[in-house]
Amino acid sequence: MRQVERSIFDLRRGLPVLIRSSSPQTDNSHPATLVAPLEGMSDDALKRLAEHAGNPCSLIVTRHRLEVLGIDTEHESMALPIGEHDSAAQVIDWACARHPKSQPAADEIANACDGDVAGLSLMRRGLLIPAAITAPVTDERLAAIEARIKDGSLLAIDTDAVADYENNAPYFLKRISAADVPLDDAPRSRFVLFREADGMREHLAIVIGDPEQWADAVPVRLHSACLTGDLFGSLRCDCGEQLRSSVAKIADHGGGVLLYLAQEGRGIGLANKLRAYSLQDEGLDTVDADHVLGFGDDERSYNVALEMLAQLEIRRIELLTNNPTKIEAMSRGGVEVVQRSGVYGRVTHQNRRYLTAKATRAGHWLDQVLGATPEDAEAADR
Question: Residue 188: beta bridge partners?
């Protein structure tokens, strides 16, 4: 697992890594593939990657990004060939521009090999744009690549290690520290910090009230972190008001737990959320903006929340949510959802489109608040 973690950090620093295939070789697989992130890619770096590998590079993108490019596929990812005259700016354009200046040749698009898929998985885990620049290493260049691995200038991992990491990372959650932190609406609150194995994400359990006095079905809120809304009071969403409303509601119910999860922007990270905001300013809704960047409707996994509840010995809950996916995730993970309660913020002119997209595209239960007229929203703003 340590090598995978180090590889993620190297990719976040803009460095390539080598991914070795753990599968038997087929026509669509390669023994070793150099993988580099899209962010910070330059013409020189693109050229060096191809030279080190001894093969041309490809751009690996997701099905959602291919749909934006007008390419239908049943595969979750595909490889777009990068020619020797294609610039880094052009490749980046293919990967994340709303209206690319050029299009890759559709008839040259190939299936992604297992090294490509593993590289894409590492980009997601590192909260980078979900696209990878890859190049299969020729037999002639393999000795030079192995020398770089031996001297520590290049990291190498295999595809099985990446798959194991994806499957098991949420279950290596460690409880790190805890302290009493009295809150305005819940004076008796204790913050318990959990850290994931790779050290990249930390999650908080806000334990409200006396656990000995909790109801049999513990009131629980799964709240994805939203820096812009929770801390700065952004009007683009209702997250901050939902957060504070949930704390007050849990306290009023005699106590329970709010899980504050490091899942900014429905799991795409703050950098990508800001990119998506810029696309929304061009007229896209929140889901379509994420698709342009190559993400799915919702990139979150609630395995970490299930692990936190397990460590807190909570198995029956009243879930404070408007999101049916959270109920399904808890039930699949063995947590019994006895009851659901809605949690709402104000509808404003700035967040109405966002809330409407959540209701119509993701099935969130928001009829109660979206029935408000624009006049009501204007009054609420005042």
Answer: none
